[in-house]
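Need a sequence for this fold. Nothing fancy.
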């Protein structure tokens, strides 16, 4: 797997996870299956598009499906855990602890997504 390939995958992840994710989806994907499904489909499409740049359609579909499913599972549980912590501690968005914990969870979320994306790609494309 070369650096160009990894860069394309990273950009596709950024587009799907940040640029194309509506606020409603970001806020509710931990509890609303329709929001989670919408986000998962967007992740599938952006990953598939990136993978198809490299020509192997069968591997592209496999990686995109597996990654989208893993991404959805990760988001569901990471953000549900954060929401439970927020409720348990009665944090509001203005609370400094809310911001501190939000960014810890966001970092964990993104790290797990990158491990899943690059790991699947490496395993299926070597």
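Here you go.
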């Amino acid at each position: 797997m070369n650096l160009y390939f990894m860069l394309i995958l990273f950009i596709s992840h950024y587009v799907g996870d940040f640029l194309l994710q509506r606020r409603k989806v970001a806020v509710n994907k931990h509890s609303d299956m329709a929001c989670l499904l919408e986000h998962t489909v967007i992740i599938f499409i952006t990953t598939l598009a990136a993978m198809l740049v490299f020509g192997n359609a069968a591997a592209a579909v496999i990686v995109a499906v597996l990654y989208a499913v893993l991404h959805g599972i990760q988001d569901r549980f990471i953000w549900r855990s954060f929401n439970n912590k927020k409720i348990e501690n009665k944090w509001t968005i203005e609370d400094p602890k809310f911001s501190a914990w939000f960014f810890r969870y966001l970092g964990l979320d993104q790290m797990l997504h990158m491990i899943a994306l690059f790991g699947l790609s490496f395993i299926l494309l070597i």
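For context: The mean pLDDT is 91.
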